[in-house]
UniProtKB/TrEMBL annotation:
Quaternary state and interactors: Component of a multi-subunit COQ enzyme complex, composed of at least COQ3, COQ4, COQ5, COQ6, COQ7 and COQ9. Interacts with PYURF; the interaction is direct, stabilizes COQ5 protein and associates PYURF with COQ enzyme complex.
Record protein name field: 2-methoxy-6-polyprenyl-1,4-benzoquinol methylase, mitochondrial
InterPro entries: SAM-dependent_MTases_sf (IPR029063), UbiE/COQ5_MeTrFase (IPR004033), UbiE/COQ5_MeTrFase_CS (IPR023576)
GO biological process: methylation
EC number(s) recorded for this UniProt protein: 2.1.1.201
Compartments reported by the entry: Mitochondrion inner membrane
Length: 317
Protein backbone atom coordinates (compact mmCIF):
# COMPACT_ATOMS: atom_id res chain seq x y z
CA UNK A 1 0.00 0.00 0.00
CA UNK A 2 1.47 3.35 -1.01
CA UNK A 3 1.17 5.43 2.11
CA UNK A 4 2.16 9.00 2.63
CA UNK A 5 3.32 8.75 6.18
CA UNK A 6 2.24 11.35 8.65
CA UNK A 7 5.53 12.51 10.13
CA UNK A 8 6.90 13.90 6.89
CA UNK A 9 3.78 15.94 6.27
CA UNK A 10 3.20 17.20 9.78
CA UNK A 11 4.84 20.58 9.30
CA UNK A 12 2.89 21.36 6.13
CA UNK A 13 -0.38 20.29 7.75
CA UNK A 14 0.23 22.51 10.76
CA UNK A 15 0.83 25.49 8.49
CA UNK A 16 -2.49 24.88 6.76
CA UNK A 17 -4.28 24.68 10.10
CA UNK A 18 -2.98 28.04 11.25
CA UNK A 19 -4.18 29.67 8.05
CA UNK A 20 -7.67 28.19 8.33
CA UNK A 21 -10.54 30.61 8.72
CA UNK A 22 -11.61 31.59 12.19
CA UNK A 23 -14.39 29.42 13.59
CA UNK A 24 -17.82 30.75 12.70
CA UNK A 25 -20.01 30.33 15.77
CA UNK A 26 -23.40 29.14 14.73
CA UNK A 27 -26.50 31.02 15.78
CA UNK A 28 -27.67 29.92 19.20
CA UNK A 29 -30.15 27.09 18.95
CA UNK A 30 -32.22 25.17 21.42
CA UNK A 31 -33.68 21.70 21.35
CA UNK A 32 -36.98 23.29 20.32
CA UNK A 33 -35.76 24.89 17.17
CA UNK A 34 -33.77 22.68 14.86
CA UNK A 35 -34.10 24.56 11.56
CA UNK A 36 -34.28 21.53 9.26
CA UNK A 37 -34.80 17.84 9.72
CA UNK A 38 -31.99 15.44 9.06
CA UNK A 39 -34.05 13.98 6.22
CA UNK A 40 -33.96 17.27 4.37
CA UNK A 41 -30.31 17.95 4.88
CA UNK A 42 -27.16 15.94 5.08
CA UNK A 43 -23.49 16.65 5.39
CA UNK A 44 -23.24 15.93 1.67
CA UNK A 45 -22.82 19.14 -0.19
CA UNK A 46 -25.88 20.46 -1.97
CA UNK A 47 -26.48 23.01 -4.68
CA UNK A 48 -28.23 26.31 -3.89
CA UNK A 49 -28.43 28.16 -7.19
CA UNK A 50 -24.84 28.30 -8.39
CA UNK A 51 -23.12 27.90 -5.03
CA UNK A 52 -22.36 24.46 -3.61
CA UNK A 53 -23.10 24.45 0.10
CA UNK A 54 -22.60 22.08 3.00
CA UNK A 55 -23.98 22.07 6.51
CA UNK A 56 -21.65 23.03 9.28
CA UNK A 57 -23.95 22.18 12.16
CA UNK A 58 -27.11 24.21 11.49
CA UNK A 59 -25.30 26.75 9.35
CA UNK A 60 -25.10 26.31 5.56
CA UNK A 61 -21.62 27.30 4.45
CA UNK A 62 -19.85 27.35 1.13
CA UNK A 63 -18.78 23.72 0.65
CA UNK A 64 -15.18 24.84 0.15
CA UNK A 65 -15.16 26.34 3.66
CA UNK A 66 -16.45 23.37 5.61
CA UNK A 67 -13.17 21.47 5.63
CA UNK A 68 -11.26 24.32 7.24
CA UNK A 69 -14.07 25.00 9.74
CA UNK A 70 -14.11 21.35 10.83
CA UNK A 71 -10.33 21.34 10.90
CA UNK A 72 -10.48 24.33 13.26
CA UNK A 73 -12.88 22.49 15.59
CA UNK A 74 -10.62 19.46 15.96
CA UNK A 75 -7.48 21.58 16.16
CA UNK A 76 -8.99 23.31 19.20
CA UNK A 77 -10.50 20.27 20.90
CA UNK A 78 -7.58 17.84 20.30
CA UNK A 79 -5.90 18.27 23.73
CA UNK A 80 -9.16 17.72 25.67
CA UNK A 81 -10.79 15.38 23.14
CA UNK A 82 -10.45 12.15 25.15
CA UNK A 83 -11.49 13.66 28.50
CA UNK A 84 -14.52 15.30 26.88
CA UNK A 85 -15.60 12.01 25.27
CA UNK A 86 -15.61 10.33 28.66
CA UNK A 87 -17.44 13.21 30.32
CA UNK A 88 -20.10 13.69 27.64
CA UNK A 89 -20.96 10.01 27.33
CA UNK A 90 -20.20 8.97 30.94
CA UNK A 91 -17.71 6.54 29.44
CA UNK A 92 -20.28 4.83 27.22
CA UNK A 93 -18.34 5.72 24.04
CA UNK A 94 -15.82 3.08 25.15
CA UNK A 95 -18.53 0.40 25.12
CA UNK A 96 -19.76 1.53 21.67
CA UNK A 97 -16.19 1.34 20.36
CA UNK A 98 -15.53 -2.06 21.98
CA UNK A 99 -18.68 -3.42 20.39
CA UNK A 100 -17.86 -1.89 17.00
CA UNK A 101 -14.36 -3.42 16.98
CA UNK A 102 -15.76 -6.79 18.10
CA UNK A 103 -17.66 -6.80 14.77
CA UNK A 104 -14.59 -6.08 12.60
CA UNK A 105 -13.67 -9.75 12.18
CA UNK A 106 -9.93 -9.30 12.68
CA UNK A 107 -7.73 -11.95 11.01
CA UNK A 108 -4.00 -12.62 10.75
CA UNK A 109 -2.32 -10.69 7.95
CA UNK A 110 -5.18 -8.25 7.40
CA UNK A 111 -4.79 -4.66 6.27
CA UNK A 112 -7.03 -2.42 8.37
CA UNK A 113 -7.66 1.23 7.58
CA UNK A 114 -9.26 3.40 10.27
CA UNK A 115 -10.30 6.71 8.75
CA UNK A 116 -10.94 9.91 10.73
CA UNK A 117 -9.10 7.88 13.34
CA UNK A 118 -8.33 10.89 15.54
CA UNK A 119 -6.48 9.90 18.68
CA UNK A 120 -6.52 6.20 17.82
CA UNK A 121 -9.39 4.75 19.88
CA UNK A 122 -10.53 2.36 17.15
CA UNK A 123 -7.10 1.64 15.67
CA UNK A 124 -5.60 0.72 19.06
CA UNK A 125 -8.43 -1.71 19.74
CA UNK A 126 -8.03 -3.30 16.29
CA UNK A 127 -4.25 -3.48 16.73
CA UNK A 128 -4.56 -5.28 20.07
CA UNK A 129 -7.07 -7.74 18.58
CA UNK A 130 -4.80 -8.31 15.56
CA UNK A 131 -1.77 -8.98 17.73
CA UNK A 132 -3.81 -11.44 19.81
CA UNK A 133 -5.08 -13.28 16.73
CA UNK A 134 -1.59 -13.45 15.21
CA UNK A 135 -0.07 -14.77 18.47
CA UNK A 136 -2.69 -17.52 18.46
CA UNK A 137 -1.99 -18.28 14.78
CA UNK A 138 1.71 -18.64 15.57
CA UNK A 139 0.95 -20.95 18.48
CA UNK A 140 -1.00 -23.02 15.96
CA UNK A 141 2.11 -23.28 13.79
CA UNK A 142 1.56 -20.46 11.29
CA UNK A 143 4.80 -18.66 10.41
CA UNK A 144 4.46 -14.88 10.28
CA UNK A 145 7.10 -12.27 9.55
CA UNK A 146 7.21 -8.53 8.91
CA UNK A 147 5.73 -9.02 5.42
CA UNK A 148 2.93 -11.37 6.33
CA UNK A 149 1.77 -9.80 9.61
CA UNK A 150 -1.25 -7.54 9.42
CA UNK A 151 -1.13 -3.79 9.59
CA UNK A 152 -3.32 -1.04 10.94
CA UNK A 153 -3.33 2.39 9.35
CA UNK A 154 -4.80 5.35 11.26
CA UNK A 155 -5.75 8.15 8.94
CA UNK A 156 -7.04 11.62 9.74
CA UNK A 157 -7.19 14.98 8.04
CA UNK A 158 -5.99 16.76 11.16
CA UNK A 159 -2.35 16.57 12.25
CA UNK A 160 -3.24 17.84 15.74
CA UNK A 161 -5.45 14.79 16.34
CA UNK A 162 -2.82 12.44 14.92
CA UNK A 163 -0.16 13.98 17.17
CA UNK A 164 -2.37 13.31 20.23
CA UNK A 165 -2.86 9.76 18.99
CA UNK A 166 0.87 9.15 18.54
CA UNK A 167 1.49 10.45 22.05
CA UNK A 168 -1.17 8.13 23.47
CA UNK A 169 0.20 5.10 21.61
CA UNK A 170 3.59 5.69 23.20
CA UNK A 171 2.14 6.37 26.67
CA UNK A 172 0.20 3.11 26.47
CA UNK A 173 3.28 1.14 25.50
CA UNK A 174 1.63 -0.23 22.36
CA UNK A 175 3.79 -2.32 20.09
CA UNK A 176 3.68 0.03 17.10
CA UNK A 177 5.52 -2.05 14.50
CA UNK A 178 2.23 -2.76 12.76
CA UNK A 179 0.82 0.74 13.12
CA UNK A 180 1.09 3.58 10.57
CA UNK A 181 -0.21 7.16 10.73
CA UNK A 182 -1.46 8.81 7.59
CA UNK A 183 -2.71 12.34 7.02
CA UNK A 184 -5.50 12.44 4.48
CA UNK A 185 -8.99 13.58 3.57
CA UNK A 186 -11.58 10.78 3.67
CA UNK A 187 -12.98 12.08 0.38
CA UNK A 188 -9.80 11.10 -1.43
CA UNK A 189 -7.29 9.17 0.60
CA UNK A 190 -3.72 8.58 -0.51
CA UNK A 191 -4.33 4.83 -0.41
CA UNK A 192 -4.01 2.39 -3.31
CA UNK A 193 -7.16 1.05 -4.95
CA UNK A 194 -8.34 -2.32 -3.61
CA UNK A 195 -5.64 -2.58 -0.95
CA UNK A 196 -7.66 -2.71 2.29
CA UNK A 197 -9.50 -5.63 3.94
CA UNK A 198 -11.53 -3.66 6.47
CA UNK A 199 -12.21 0.09 6.43
CA UNK A 200 -13.65 1.67 9.58
CA UNK A 201 -14.76 5.23 10.24
CA UNK A 202 -15.99 6.12 13.73
CA UNK A 203 -17.64 9.45 14.52
CA UNK A 204 -15.91 10.85 11.47
CA UNK A 205 -18.23 10.67 8.45
CA UNK A 206 -20.47 13.41 9.90
CA UNK A 207 -17.57 15.82 9.71
CA UNK A 208 -16.66 15.21 6.09
CA UNK A 209 -17.87 17.81 3.58
CA UNK A 210 -19.06 15.37 0.94
CA UNK A 211 -20.42 12.24 2.63
CA UNK A 212 -21.09 10.50 -0.66
CA UNK A 213 -17.52 11.09 -1.90
CA UNK A 214 -16.12 9.59 1.32
CA UNK A 215 -18.31 6.49 1.00
CA UNK A 216 -17.26 6.10 -2.65
CA UNK A 217 -13.60 6.46 -1.70
CA UNK A 218 -14.01 3.74 0.94
CA UNK A 219 -15.37 1.48 -1.80
CA UNK A 220 -12.36 2.30 -3.99
CA UNK A 221 -9.86 1.48 -1.19
CA UNK A 222 -11.43 -1.88 -0.31
CA UNK A 223 -10.35 -5.17 -1.84
CA UNK A 224 -13.13 -7.22 -3.42
CA UNK A 225 -14.63 -9.04 -0.44
CA UNK A 226 -13.65 -6.14 1.85
CA UNK A 227 -15.81 -4.77 4.64
CA UNK A 228 -16.88 -1.18 5.30
CA UNK A 229 -18.02 -0.19 8.80
CA UNK A 230 -19.34 3.14 10.03
CA UNK A 231 -19.87 3.99 13.71
CA UNK A 232 -21.74 7.27 13.94
CA UNK A 233 -24.22 9.21 16.01
CA UNK A 234 -27.60 8.58 14.53
CA UNK A 235 -31.28 9.18 15.12
CA UNK A 236 -33.11 8.15 18.25
CA UNK A 237 -36.43 6.55 17.40
CA UNK A 238 -38.22 6.49 20.77
CA UNK A 239 -39.95 9.86 21.29
CA UNK A 240 -39.38 10.05 25.08
CA UNK A 241 -35.74 9.06 24.83
CA UNK A 242 -35.35 11.58 22.00
CA UNK A 243 -36.65 14.41 24.16
CA UNK A 244 -34.31 13.55 27.04
CA UNK A 245 -31.40 13.17 24.64
CA UNK A 246 -32.13 16.48 22.89
CA UNK A 247 -32.40 18.27 26.22
CA UNK A 248 -29.07 16.83 27.36
CA UNK A 249 -27.39 17.51 24.02
CA UNK A 250 -28.39 21.12 23.61
CA UNK A 251 -28.25 22.18 27.24
CA UNK A 252 -25.47 20.17 28.86
CA UNK A 253 -22.90 19.34 26.17
CA UNK A 254 -22.10 22.91 25.03
CA UNK A 255 -21.82 23.92 28.70
CA UNK A 256 -19.41 21.04 29.39
CA UNK A 257 -17.41 22.17 26.34
CA UNK A 258 -17.25 25.66 27.76
CA UNK A 259 -16.19 24.52 31.24
CA UNK A 260 -13.73 21.77 30.34
CA UNK A 261 -12.42 22.55 26.86
CA UNK A 262 -13.07 26.31 27.12
CA UNK A 263 -14.81 26.00 23.77
CA UNK A 264 -18.59 26.13 23.67
CA UNK A 265 -18.80 26.65 19.89
CA UNK A 266 -17.11 23.38 18.95
CA UNK A 267 -19.49 21.39 21.15
CA UNK A 268 -22.49 23.29 19.81
CA UNK A 269 -21.26 22.20 16.36
CA UNK A 270 -21.07 18.59 17.62
CA UNK A 271 -24.71 18.42 18.70
CA UNK A 272 -25.96 20.20 15.60
CA UNK A 273 -23.92 18.09 13.20
CA UNK A 274 -25.47 14.95 14.71
CA UNK A 275 -28.97 16.22 13.86
CA UNK A 276 -27.93 17.02 10.31
CA UNK A 277 -26.39 13.61 9.59
CA UNK A 278 -28.43 11.28 7.36
CA UNK A 279 -30.67 8.92 9.32
CA UNK A 280 -30.11 5.17 9.31
CA UNK A 281 -32.12 4.27 6.17
CA UNK A 282 -30.81 7.20 4.14
CA UNK A 283 -27.20 6.31 4.98
CA UNK A 284 -27.82 2.72 3.89
CA UNK A 285 -29.17 3.89 0.56
CA UNK A 286 -26.09 6.10 0.07
CA UNK A 287 -23.91 3.04 0.70
CA UNK A 288 -25.86 0.97 -1.82
CA UNK A 289 -25.63 3.79 -4.37
CA UNK A 290 -21.84 3.57 -4.52
CA UNK A 291 -21.92 -0.22 -4.86
CA UNK A 292 -21.90 -1.71 -1.36
CA UNK A 293 -23.83 -4.95 -0.97
CA UNK A 294 -25.39 -6.72 2.05
CA UNK A 295 -25.81 -3.32 3.67
CA UNK A 296 -27.23 -3.36 7.20
CA UNK A 297 -27.37 -1.26 10.34
CA UNK A 298 -27.65 -1.89 14.04
CA UNK A 299 -28.79 0.74 16.53
CA UNK A 300 -26.95 1.09 19.84
CA UNK A 301 -28.45 2.87 22.86
CA UNK A 302 -31.79 3.36 21.13
CA UNK A 303 -30.24 4.79 17.96
CA UNK A 304 -28.07 7.45 19.62
CA UNK A 305 -25.36 5.62 17.73
CA UNK A 306 -25.60 3.17 14.83
CA UNK A 307 -23.21 0.71 13.23
CA UNK A 308 -23.59 0.54 9.45
CA UNK A 309 -21.92 -2.28 7.55
CA UNK A 310 -21.52 -3.00 3.84
CA UNK A 311 -19.37 -5.26 1.67
CA UNK A 312 -17.60 -4.81 -1.64
CA UNK A 313 -18.49 -8.15 -3.10
CA UNK A 314 -16.22 -10.16 -5.38
CA UNK A 315 -18.91 -10.67 -8.02
CA UNK A 316 -19.57 -7.00 -8.79
CA UNK A 317 -19.93 -5.92 -12.42
C1 LIG B 1 -15.12 12.96 16.51
S1 LIG B 1 -13.51 12.63 15.92
C2 LIG B 1 -13.47 10.88 15.90
C3 LIG B 1 -12.12 10.32 16.22
C4 LIG B 1 -12.07 8.80 16.44
N1 LIG B 1 -12.49 8.07 15.27
C5 LIG B 1 -12.89 8.40 17.62
O1 LIG B 1 -13.84 7.65 17.43
O2 LIG B 1 -12.58 8.80 18.74
C6 LIG B 1 -13.68 13.04 14.22
C7 LIG B 1 -12.38 13.02 13.46
O3 LIG B 1 -12.68 13.22 12.07
C8 LIG B 1 -11.59 13.93 11.50
N2 LIG B 1 -12.03 14.46 10.20
C9 LIG B 1 -12.85 15.50 9.96
N3 LIG B 1 -13.01 15.69 8.64
C10 LIG B 1 -12.27 14.73 8.02
C11 LIG B 1 -12.03 14.40 6.66
N4 LIG B 1 -12.59 15.08 5.67
N5 LIG B 1 -11.22 13.36 6.39
C12 LIG B 1 -10.64 12.65 7.40
N6 LIG B 1 -10.83 12.92 8.71
C13 LIG B 1 -11.63 13.94 9.02
C14 LIG B 1 -11.26 14.96 12.56
O4 LIG B 1 -10.00 15.53 12.37
C15 LIG B 1 -11.40 14.14 13.82
O5 LIG B 1 -10.19 13.58 14.23
Amino acid sequence: MALRVFASRCARGAARVSSARAFATSPSTTADEPPTTADEASTSSTHRGEAKTASFGYVEVDAREKESLVRGVFERVAPSYDVMNDLMSAGVHRLWKDYFVSKVGVFAGMTHLDVAGGTGDIAFRVLRALQRVEREAELDGQVLDANTRGKVVVSDINPAMLREGMKRATQRGLNQEQLTWLEGNAEKLPVEDESVDVYTIAFGLRNVTDTRAAIADAYRCLKPGGKYMILEFSHVENEILKQVYDFYSFNVIPKLGELVARDRGSYQYLVESIRKFPPQEKLKSMMRDVGFKHVSHENLTGGMVAVHTGYKTKDRI
